Amino acid sequence: MAKPVCIKCETFMRVRKVGVALEERIPTGAVNETGDALYGPYKLWAGDLLACPTCGAEVVAAFGMYAIAEHYEEQYARTVAGYAEKGMLYVAYDRPRAHP
Length: 100
Ligand SMILES: [Zn+2]
Hints:
The chain is built from one helix and seven strands; from the N terminus they run E-E-E-E-E-E-H-E. It is mainly beta.
């Protein structure tokens, strides 16, 4: 299977962490006082963190076919917290947003 490639460096990315979790967040429909959309948890995916050995750019890839947890499930928050405590949690939004 082809690995992700850093096109800037023309180099295959290397696995940095196996079995990380990516929390997919979606708009809640609400906005904050400055009009920015608020996001909430949706699905938790398992994947690997890969990095470019040259420039250090990172991506999460190699996801399984199904989410490992969904926001409405009773154990969702506990599962997310477990990954966060181990430094294995990343998040993703459906569009670019201002970083706090
Ligand atoms: Zn690179």
